Amino acid sequence: MNTTVDLDNPTLAEKTTAIEQLRGKLSDEVNSYCSDSAAAMVNEWYQWRKDARIDDLPIAQPNNVFPVPYPIRGYHSVADANLTAGMRVSDMQLKLNKVFGGGCWHKRDKDGHPVYIERAGRYHIKDIPKMSTMNGLFEFHFMMQEFLNRTIFPECSEIAGCEISKQVVIFDMAGISIGMLSHWPALNMLREMLSKDQLYYPECMHLTYIVNAPSMFVTAWKLIRSWLDPRVISKIHILGKDHADVLLKQIPDYNLPAFLGGSCRCSHMPGGCVPSVPLNNFPDLPRKAFVSLRHQVQISYTHPRHSFVYNLSPTEFDPPPTPLSSPLMGYASWLGIKRDSARASAPPSPVQSRTRYIYLRFTADHGRGIVVEVLWRSSNDAANEDGTLIYPEVLFDPQRAPIVLEIESPNRSGQLVFNWRIANFDEGQAPFPDPQEAQVPIQLEYSVDTEESLVEEFDLLPIKHD
Ligand SMILES: [Zn+2]
């Protein structure tokens, strides 16, 4: 044949011809085997997606407001986020979050593959069966796989300019005990998970690094590798404590967390690069009622800035009779309230305070992108008029899906200041608008979400609007 086929973009007719030509070259026996088994696999895959209602799973994407199923750092289609106790997060996800060691899609490798990091050594393995059934675990796991396929791979492909459909996985075994490696129910769960992945999500692993593997891991690995396809095994690298050089060959220094030998710390996010409840760098997430304080404002190139201030101060407050069991205990310490009468009669509390977060959601529908910063002005600190930066300036692309920021609040009363501005001419990717376009107002919509009881008890009030 003299015609040239564009291998990257074959037409349907070209594909059909190619398949027929290939069939013609195979023996009848091979041909029937291939087509039957392939058809059976595809049918089974479709049936499974239907039965497990995979397409109905609430997967976070740029065009919806679903929460992320797992923490994410360094992507633009979904902003940096942790798991939150929001409305669309199931109780099972919150329970598992307590006993999982912590995982995160953390930026990209040098070839543009997403990097997934799991603190595998920090799992509270024995508690997992208490928190979830096998089906519950599968659902959680499939949500992660779907998030990877529907949201992360498309973005990585767009950035790399070629199809990216495989990820790099790092299992950090630091903290693992012999009890975990020989815990049969956990190994059984792992085997089930691996078999489902090989069946329903094949070929989506580029490389896997198992780092900080202790010498006793060798025995467990002999067992685990017997469950894996030989092609999968060839892509798995087992490394001890000296793993940094190997990882840095694949992942840029600034994209690799410091605890794995890189320089990234993600200090703008609670929990840093890979939040972990068992490691205590991220709080457990009890389900609470959240209220959303909504605002809508127009900005433009002639008025490119917008600020909003919340006053956080306690209202009249009577200490509850049983302070230790009261959820207000945490708020009291957050806001620095002295409650001597309660303390005097109470034994030392294990719950001194917990980190509090305020969730800021916003969308800016067009423009060059929007820059956000958040400041804290202590009410006792008149000298520091400008306040303390608690979320430094970050530029976000304009998008209709809300960007959700999780902002850690200091343990004091005062004012929370949100500042927005349109990106300057030397920031961002989008071209500077022409004079006519610059006249079109940009709709900025935002809401501040916070725990309902916090608003009720502490009078979270908007005080200034400009
Ligand atoms: Zn990081």
From TrEMBL:
Residues in CRAL-TRIO domain copies: 93-268
Taxonomic superkingdom: Eukaryota
Gene3D superfamilies associated with the record: CRAL-TRIO lipid binding domain
A Pfam family recorded for this sequence: CRAL_TRIO
InterPro entries: CRAL-TRIO_dom, CRAL-TRIO_dom_sf, PI/PC_transfer
Database matches in SUPFAM superfamilies: CRAL/TRIO domain
Protein known as: CRAL-TRIO domain-containing protein
